[in-house]
Request: fold
Amino acid sequence: MALRPELVYEPPRPERVEAFLHRALEIAAFVQVGVDPAELLAEFNRESGRQWRAEALLFALLGGDLPDLALEAAGPLPQATDLSREELVALLALIREAGPGEAAYYMELFDSQVGRLNACDLLFWPPDKWSWRRSRRKLAEWQPSDEEIVDLAMGTAE
Reply:
């Protein structure tokens, strides 16, 4: 199923991504040397429309993921409501295929619709990963269908 046009990810302009990358680098550098970047971070969050922590920017810098974080921060905020079950399943398929900025957008959209905190985590591990591991099952064995993930996330799984 194709998504409605208003749900489709629109990548941000390269200049916007570059501006977020420079600000993220500055914030991460401040954190690294022990300077409080509160004012810069507040502006970064205001312009992004999201709530980033300064430590997350430093972690992304050290891990080499800061360009992906900047792409996500510069990207659009999902503005949809009342997605159908079929659209939620289609979102999960898109998440699996998408690059970093696009995947983050679709994950944010999915999570906002199902009423379960971090619902997209179900793509990667079971609802109770600790019980799963205690039963000596490997996380690699967790391979639910997109339909099963939607049912789990919405609390309609049998």
Summary: The longest helix spans residues 14-32. The helical segments are 14-32, 38-48, 54-63, 66-74, 85-97, 100-114, 129-134, 146-154. The chain has two domains: 10-74, 85-154. The two ends are 24 Å apart (CA to CA).
